[in-house]
Design a protein that fits this description.
Layout lengths: L16 H51 L7 E9 L2 E11 L5 E9 L8 E10 L2
Antiparallel strand pairs: 1-2, 2-3, 3-4
Length: about 130
């Protein structure tokens, strides 16, 4: 018997096995949530980077059309665009409008040079005669 007549094992210090397992489970759940959040942040940063590079590629193609001395011909054309070490495919589609002095131009950018690559961005504008 120990102090006050209670058995000494009631005064044992430390954690039980169940308490340790609960603490480990809580820690594992918190770490899994952190890894998932980190993965989502990395994906969003990559997507934002790809979208910015695609925007640059699309704008370059549209500026080429605007700077040309003649109206663009109706139809589709494909090219590649190199930005920040990535090669992206660009398809430019020119459509007629009811006013013959204007053409509708769409630039669609893909994640890779292949026609089957994932689309990243599409930009449309109107090009007119000067």
């Amino acid at each position: 018997m120990s102090l006050r007549g209670l058995p000494s094992r009631l005064h044992a210090r430390g954690f039980t096995l169940i308490e340790v397992l609960v603490a480990l489970a809580i820690t594992a759940i918190a770490l899994a949530a952190g890894v998932r959040a980190s993965s989502a942040l990395q994906y969003n940063a990559q997507r934002q980077s790809d979208t910015l590079l695609a925007q640059i590629c699309a704008e370059n193609e549209l500026v080429k059309m605007r700077l040309a001395k003649q109206m663009p011909g109706v139809g589709d054309s494909s090219s590649t665009c190199q930005q920040a070490g990535q090669t992206m495919g660009v398809t430019v589609s020119v459509y007629p409008t009811p006013n013959p002095s204007f053409r509708r131009v769409e630039a669609a950018v893909r994640a890779g040079p292949e026609a089957s690559a994932n689309p990243v961005l599409s930009v449309a504008t109107i090009v007119g005669r000067f």
